[in-house]
């Protein structure tokens, strides 16, 4: 069994211990000692064991007694529950009869509220009167305090009524009606508040405390609104007229005030004042800046920080301005008005004169302000501006030319510039107009300025073509009656000089208003304009020379005639006439004047040679030939002297032209006919454009060459070499020789 097993284990362990104690012979002496020690140990273990068993038994005893008590308690509770159950079943009917008590309690609480408010209820009419007086006296804070008391009484009564019987609208209406005047008071007070709010920017300077009072009243109302809304969440009840939302109303009033302020600045219309828009925009700028400065420095301090009043106002002004600018943009604006509007919207608005004002910093950041009008509207306005401007420029240019043409027929000379060159006001008028429009466009932006410049130059191009046609018509009209207009020569000179002025003005306009990188886009139109101007000037010069030669015609007709040979003064008259004309031509500007002198010199020589080739005279003998030739040489010298004088300072070398007359004179002067061929061949080698008919005519004028001789000289010449002067400009090719010789009629 387990017991025996334990005994055996104990014996085995004991044997082991004893064996451990008695290892050596000398330990046997201590056996007694060991025994006593073991006996002590054993006694101690037994005592502990006994104590443990004892306490175990005590615990068991206590536990049993507690279980016994618990059992008795459970039995008692069971009995009590049975009793309670019995009582409850008996008293159900009694509880149902207590509803009357509950109603009485509710009624009691209502009556208690009524009693509490009785003195208020009875004094409602009096309080209403007092409040009315306070409002009229402008003591808004006290008035509001009384109004709050009244509202509090009414709201408490209504709330009690609602709790007692929320369906009973009759009693609710009764209370509402009784407190009816109070609603009017609230509206009356609100009206006063809104008047102060409307004038807040003025009030804040004169009477800031009034504004602060208004803000305090609004804040109180906001607090009551919040309380009432919280109660509604819990109970479902909210008094009539709540929430009042006075803060929201205040901001709406401010917004309307701002809009009205901006709309109200337009004092004039286009009919009453050309500058209506500029004035309107300037007033807006001033008002808005003043208002915002007041708002920032004074108004801000009258409102709690969470109102963020300055930024709210800034926003309102921005919105109102955007609306106003869009309205203006939608009107039928003229070109200058479009510029005023765009310049204001794109530049002035964000400049230091307005939103960029240093005193508004850092609250106002111009970079974060939205545009007042959309890019789309800006583009529409710009394109409208460009099309209006285009038709305006066309009209202006046409009018300028018409006005200028009226001057051309005046009986007084045109005015001269400081250097004495004739001119008309046309270039100045045209370029002044261009300048004005470019300066206006520059107010808006670079891009528009460039567009306007391109437009001006493009219109200038068409204008110059018209100018050219008008100058041509002017000349044709004059040719019909050369007495008219009286100052034709002077005005034609002015037209020629205007060409030079136009050239210079185009260059300076481009230099002033065109960015370097745009040069290429314009170079072709510029070249084209220069070309037209050169044509106008050239045609002008040529028509002036026509004038000269029409006057010279009778004297040129006298050359190489019998009368001439007898000693007429035709060349003297020719020289005086040319010089006279050139006194006027001195008023032509440099590049053109030089051309004129060269051309006149050339034409005089051509006409002189043409007179020789007309075979009006045929010299009879050597005497006549000598006389004629010497006369030709003398006259060539007169021409040379004249044109040297006219070309003074221009460094023009036209010596060679008169040499041709002298060379021809040498051929006529020659006395030895056998040398004639040599003389002629020298002439031809110098002037290789001489034709056979020229030589034949020359020999006819000499008067001593037979038909065969002419034939031989001409045929032999064809083989000869030529050695012309490299500067020689062919002159004979424009001279025709008449085929029919009728010298007898001309003698």
From TrEMBL:
Pfam families recorded: Sec6 (PF06046)
UniProt family annotation: Belongs to the SEC6 family.
Record keywords: Acetylation, Cell projection, Cytoplasm, Exocytosis, Golgi apparatus, Protein transport, Transport
Compartments where found: Cell projection, Growth cone; Cytoplasm, Perinuclear region; Golgi apparatus; Midbody
Complex and partners: The exocyst complex is composed of EXOC1, EXOC2, EXOC3, EXOC4, EXOC5, EXOC6, EXOC7 and EXOC8. Interacts with EXOC3L1. Interacts with BIRC6/bruce. Interacts with MYRIP. Interacts with SLC6A9.
InterPro entries: EXOC3/Sec6 (IPR010326), EXOC3/Sec6_C (IPR042532)
Gene giving rise to this polypeptide: Exoc3
A GO molecular-function annotation: SNARE binding
GO cellular component: a single term: perinuclear region of cytoplasm
Full protein name: Exocyst complex component 3
Function, as annotated: Component of the exocyst complex involved in the docking of exocytic vesicles with fusion sites on the plasma membrane.
One of the protein's GO biological processes: exocyst localization
Domain of life of the native organism: Eukaryota
